[in-house]
Amino acid sequence: MSGRGTWLPVLSVGAALAFMAACVAGQAGASGAASAPLPAARAAGPALRQVMTQARSFGGTPAVGALVTVTAAGGLGKHFCSASVVDSPAGNLVITAAHCLAGRQAGQFVFVPGYDHGRAPYGAWPVRRVITDQDWASSSDPDDDVAFVELTRAVQGVTGAEHLGTGQPPGQLVTVIGYPGNQDSAIFCVNYSSSYSATQLVFRCGGYTNGTSGGPLLAHVDAATGLGTVIGVIGGYQQGGVTDAISYAAVLGPDIAALYQAAIADP
User: What predicted TM-score, i.e. pTM, was given to this entire model?
Assistant: First the structure.
């Protein structure tokens, strides 16, 4: 990802969840579909009940975090990509974009869930191994720009986990979370994904600069927990896009379902 966005004031986690819920509630109402009561979101007012065109900064959510380099002294270095915890039997699996990990090995970086201004509120989690598709390894196929990162210990019990949604249709309302390289807090945006091609999704919202690669496209987000279903990660075509306002993601199809099975199997 490249380009620059204009940042709005940072929202607290609670305010951000209410904002997301208001967007979802407003779109459900507009389409005529029934929506569950969301008192906090409805109190925010009708102006929030619409999709967004510009990302907003917020305090982060536990199951989404940053990939951060490790310094020679063993401390946290710079964050370079985004990632999220996905449900797995061992509770130690993270999903991101494969291009984020080119040339990087376990021991050189950690996963920091809820990363915020250099702080690691849920700890810094070392990496055991990186799992990418053979087609990505051999040809950097943008349709396989997805990687799983196995951590050395279980994180899911601390942060919760997103559901991995393979075979999901385009056109869903999604919340996209990531960590731009030019700031130290997370951003989010709520808008519809659409089909760019049979194998790629596209998401339009400003602010997704370098560093947001690997951030999840979350459908069916629970307003109380912030957890949802990952239907893609920023990456794929143009490694996620060449402007901050248009982002791409490889469709999570059979190859990614098979990659997940390989990731949860014993190496």
Answer: 0.84
